[in-house]
Structure formats: structure tokens, C-alpha cells
Amino acid sequence: MSWPRIRALVLRYTFLYTRSIPRVTELFFWPIMDLLVWGYVTLYLQRLYAAQDTPPAGMGVITFLLGAMIFWDILYRAQQGTTLAFLEDIWARNLLNIFVAPIRVSEFIVATYLVSLLRIMVTVIVLIALAWFLYAFNLFALGFSLLPLFINLLFMGWALGMITTGLIMRWGQAAEALAWGVPFLIQPLAAVFYPVNVLPVWVQPVALAIPATHVFEGMRAVLRGEGLPGQYLFWAFALNFVYVVAAAGFFRFMYESARRRGLLAKLVTQ
Amino acid sequence: MSDAIVQVEHLRKEFNGTVAVADVSFTVRRGEIVGLLGANGAGKTTTIQVLLGLTTLTSGAVRVFGQDLERHRVEILQRCNFSSAYTALPSNLRVRENLRVFAALYQVRDYRPKMDALLQLFEIAHLKDKITGHLSSGESTRVNLCKALLSDPELLLLDEPTASLDPDIADKVRKILRRIQRERGITMIYTSHNMRDVEEVCDRVLFLHKGKVIAAGAPQEVIARFNQRSLEEVFIRVARSGDLVEAQ
Ligand SMILES: Nc1ncnc2c1ncn2[C@@H]1O[C@H](COP(=O)(O)OP(=O)(O)O)[C@@H](O)[C@H]1O
Ligand SMILES: [Mg+2]
User: Kind of pairing, strands B80-84 and B33-37?
Assistant: First the structure.
């Protein structure tokens, strides 16, 4: 892998983002809207509980919602950012220029990872700051657990991103809607806003096979003051390893299939 | 090492049963400009795409710089470049930003003087700071050509590079390509519907018809062989009755 070539691809996307007001706006608009909604839902629930004579145990638990929302956004944007980098080249009719440049597929993928990471950093920093100012929610209360949880969300997002990019490569822009839809397919199962044990028993094994489930369970444990149980971390990393390797294999397969069918050029000119 | 830059032997490419290239063999030597001609659907673009590794081949063998394309794709692409009227550079970047990105992708050292010289050569130096999407199609075609030449390629693949140029600029571009070929010895493979283009620029032409080469040679030779007055007439004859020509 060549670092200068990866850097060149990342440079191209940074130009793209810093030159476009709609793209910059998109980085903030939805996350901030989400934050406002979940922030006020949180405030409301807190007031309901506070008004009761005997507030239920674990009242602070409601702050989960904001943490979950920010974490979900990290996962969602990791997925979306990788696929979007590829879509941008299709939209610009630039994809052929990229694929005839001396770039390895792995370099292209790593570049899309880094682009999504940059996008996430920008979005998440703003979200964390706003959550602090508006709702006194401090994500850094997660302490050092934040880092491994964050990394696992990234990995899972990247795995999903490779799958969607692979599908678009093979099925063309008709599959574009997937770029926005895929994360929401797993959202109900990934225990984002509620623990796994509220799901029907027979669904729980499926939920536990998703890396992000363990991240969200882990986050709630930390916010409850229980520390980060090692088993959540273990399963998140182990499952992510399987997901990333499988997704990379899938991407490779779709790429070769698209090449055989001459679809790389058609993506641009259709 | 021989000076064969491209060797194509019995190239065949089928897309799900559609035969795009049936059986094509040719060799391109260092410093040659070879034109691929033929009617729409004759297989020109597919041949170029195979040479760029954008699509795989069904059977046959392709060697570029004496190396197997499948196994040495990245090394080969490092020494090639490509331009087509059907691709574009990202529209919201400035011209110089786009060229900078591609200079970096091809790891061109000290690209600025090269970029400036190329922009000058194509008479678009004044567009350097313009947003690429604001250029006219003739201007962006020339920017594409600058992108293709910036990496000092040994082999340049051009798929209808002049499709959107007015006759004046097309003439200039032809002269520039010839000049660059003379000065730098770049090898080029060139597809075009414009026979003037081809007669003026190409040392040799390959006529494709339904995925096969049905005539090859210097433009004048081919014209003489078909008893026509110009390549344009040969083109029309081949397009209308290529099957007869093939049978001869
Ligand atoms: N990706 C593809 N899938 C299916 N058929 C294709 C594909 N690409 C090209 N073809 C077919 O192959 C033939 C040759 O196409 P092409 O190489 O683009 O011709 P040219 O560039 O000479 O006009 C055409 O009949 C075209 O429809
Ligand atoms: Mg064509």
C-alpha cells in the first residue's frame, strides 16, 4: 500500500468538502436536528420522573438517549462516509480517472475509511459540544472506554460501507438508496436506544451477532457507573473482525464481478 | 527488450454472451500513434478498457511494456494515462486543484512547472484558477488532456479525445499531440470518429468491424487498398458493408 497515493485521494475529498457549502451543511444539519429532538425528549422524561414522589432507580439512565444518538451517528456516518466517497466520483464522472490511476483497491478503500473518519470527527466534535452546552451531557464521562467503543463503531460502519459500495458497483446507481438505508436495517436490532433484553427472546441471538449491539450495551454499562465489562469489548472486537474481513471479501468479489461485466465504465457513462 | 509497448493477441471479450471484441491482435511500437477506427459498437472502447485493466478479457493475451496486465496492473498504470471526452474532473474543484490531485496520485514530483507548461501548451493557462464545472466542454476536454499528460506517460490511451472540440481547437489539439509525440516519444492509441483527426495524427490505423480487425496499415495504405479517396470513404464503406470486406 502506498501512503502518498492514499493521501492524494484524501486530498481530493477534502477539496471537495471545503469547496461546497451544501456538503458542509450536510455534515451538521441532520445530526444537530437529531440532537435537538433527543435532547428535549431527554429533558421531558427527566421532568416526568422528577415529578414523581419516588423517582425510579437509575433516573440518570435517561441520558443514555443522547449518548446513544451520538454513537449511532458515528456508526451511520462511518458507513455513509465510505460509500459517499465512491458515489461522489460517480456523480462527478471521475470514477474512470480514479480507476485508471495506479491505485490498488485496498488503497482506495483505506482512503474512503479516512474520509469517513474526517467527516465523523467534524460532526462528532460539534455534537459533543452542543450536547454539553444545551443539555449538560458530557460524552467524556465515558472516560477511556470512549476510545475502544468509538473504534468499534468505526469498524462496523466501515464494514457496512464496503458492502453498500460493493452493491452500488455491481447494481449501479439504482442501489444508491441502499447507501442511506442499510444502517437502518440493523438499527432496531443493534440495541441502540434500549437494551437487548427488551427484544423478543428469539430475536436476541440475532441482536448479539451484531458488533454494535455490544458497543451500545457497553456504553450503557459505563453510564450506569459499572465500568466497561470486558465481555462487551471482546465480542465487539471479535465480531467486527469477522464483519470487516467478510465485507472486504464481498467488496473484492463485487469489484471483480463489475470488472468482468465492464460495469466500472458504465457507472460513469450511463 | 523489444520496443513493442502494447501486444494484443487474439483478444476476445464477451459481456454475458454479447461479443464486444471477437478476435483482435495488434502490436504498438514505442513512439507510434495508432488509431482505432470503426462504427459505433465496433469494439474500440472495450479494447481500450481492457488495455487499462478496467475490464477483464475473456480470452487471449495482453502485454503492456512487456508485462502481463493482470499481474502488473498498478506498475503498468503508473506509466500510462487516459483521457476521454466522456469522463470529467470533479466539477467543484479549481482546475489547478484537480491537476494537483492527479499529480499526487501519479506521484509526479515538482508538478507545478509541468502543469503550467501544459496549460500554456493547450492555451488554457488563464483557466487555472477557474472552477472546473464552469468550463466549456472544449475547455474541459483540454484540461483532461493536461491531466493525462501531467504524469509524463509513456503510453497514452485516448478514447474520442476531441469529440467536443470545435474545428479550430481540434486542429490545435491534433498538432499538439503530434508535437508531444515527436518531442517526448509518447506512444498513443487513439479512437475517434473524426477521420481528419486520424489521418493527420495517426501513423497507423486499425479498422474494427464487429469486434475484428478488418484492415490495418498507414492511413494512405488503407485508403489505397480500398480504392477510396479518403479515410472517411473507407470508414463508410466498412461500416456499410464490413461483412463483405471481411470475406475478401
Ligand atoms: N459493459 C457492457 N455490457 C454489455 N455489452 C457491452 C458492454 N460494453 C460494451 N458492450 C457492447 O459491446 C459492443 C462494443 O462496444 P464498444 O466497445 O463500446 O464500441 P465502440 O467504442 O467501438 O463504439 C457494443 O455492441 C456494446 O453494446
Ligand atoms: Mg466508444
Answer: unpaired
